[in-house]
Write a structure and sequence with these properties.
Order of helices and strands: EHEEHEHEHEHHEEHEEHEHHHEHHE
Distance between the termini: 54 Å
Radius of gyration: 20 Å
Number of helices: 13
Largest sheet: 7 strands, mixed
Shape: globular
Helix content: 25-40%
Structural class: alpha/beta
């Protein structure tokens, strides 16, 4: 459908649209959409009600307080969206904390638009859902061939990892921490990523939402590898609060800590985003879990090893 005007209120969707070769059809974005860099010039159609510069505990408290009042944690710029007159708005129904969700958009657009505007909502729970969303958007935006090529490349890159690990029987246990205070473990597609990369995910289930966890359970599991990937945090942002983990009782006695197998990854750009760069996330995890088999070049940028 040439000439469609698209607003994306989900970073992953923005990346999908661009990867399909349709960046020129984007006319607006959310405040969180920041990749590729060229889309940052687009009008920003949303904002967050909580203070993004706060520490992890403060952000968590603010979000819970706002949601307890049955209020969205995001504000949508209704007048800006009306003036942009989009044909399609893409959002999500997966998490009311991660990005602007479908209910927010439906309420904001009620009796607003002077023209027909279609809402597309994505709701991935696992890796296959991410691939289905890419295919679905490609179909809806008349970019079917680009979608097929994008998915074929993702499959080829993933198959390389699967093939090289086919006969490796010794697999380390892996815990992925998605929030620092209170502690939360990464669910959804992350356990699958760990499995593909040659690890055994513990304390998290595939296709299940990320969940808060008692630190004692991590101590009891005593994983071989710890991967720190706070939602929305870069590596540097995570380092600012790494003491939240270092100060936990018995942290230095954990096997992963003693054997220097604690890693910090860019959750914001990779693991937290259900878009094309989920394949990069798989490659990053493969580098971390099996460094002798894989060197894709992400170390120092997408992830780093952390030692006390």
């Amino acid at each position: 459908m040439p000439g469609l005007k698209i607003i994306s209120l989900l970073p992953a969707a923005t990346e999908i649209v661009c990867a399909l070769g349709l960046e020129q059809q984007l006319i607006g974005r959310s405040h969180e959409c920041d990749y590729p860099e060229s889309i940052q010039k687009l009008p920003v159609c949303s904002s967050a009600k909580f203070l993004s510069g706060s520490d992890s505990a403060a952000i968590d408290a603010q979000v819970k307080e706002i949601l307890s009042e049955a209020v969205s944690i995001y504000t949508i710029d209704r007048e800006l969206i009306k003036s942009l007159a989009p044909d399609i708005i893409i959002t999500q129904a997966q998490c009311e904390v991660c990005a602007v969700n479908l209910n927010d958009v439906e309420k904001a657009l009620n009796d607003l638009m002077d023209k027909e505007c279609r809402l597309i909502s994505l709701s991935p729970g696992g890796l296959q859902d991410i691939y289905k969303d890419i295919s679905y958007l490609a179909e809806e935006l008349n970019a079917q061939q680009s979608g097929v090529e994008l998915l074929e490349l993702a499959e080829e890159r993933t198959d390389i990892i699967r093939h090289k690990l086919k006969f490796i029987t010794q697999k380390p246990t892996v815990v992925c921490i998605e929030w620092l205070s209170p502690l939360m473990l990464a669910g959804n597609w992350t356990p699958e990523i760990v499995e593909i990369a040659g690890g055994i995910p513990v304390l998290s289930e595939k296709n299940k939402h990320s969940a808060y966890v008692d630190y004692q359970l991590i101590r009891e599991a005593d994983p071989d590898i710890l991967v720190i990937m706070p939602c929305g945090f870069s590596v540097q942002r995570t380092l600012q609060e790494i003491n939240l983990l270092l100060e936990l009782p018995g942290w230095t006695e954990l096997k992963a800590v003693k054997e220097q197998r604690v890693y910090i990854v860019d959750g914001n750009q990779f693991f937290n985003r259900s878009g094309p760069r989920i394949t990069d996330s798989i490659e990053i995890m493969a580098e971390i879990i099996n460094p002798k088999q894989f060197i894709f070049g992400y170390e120092g940028n997408g992830w780093l090893s952390f030692t006390i």
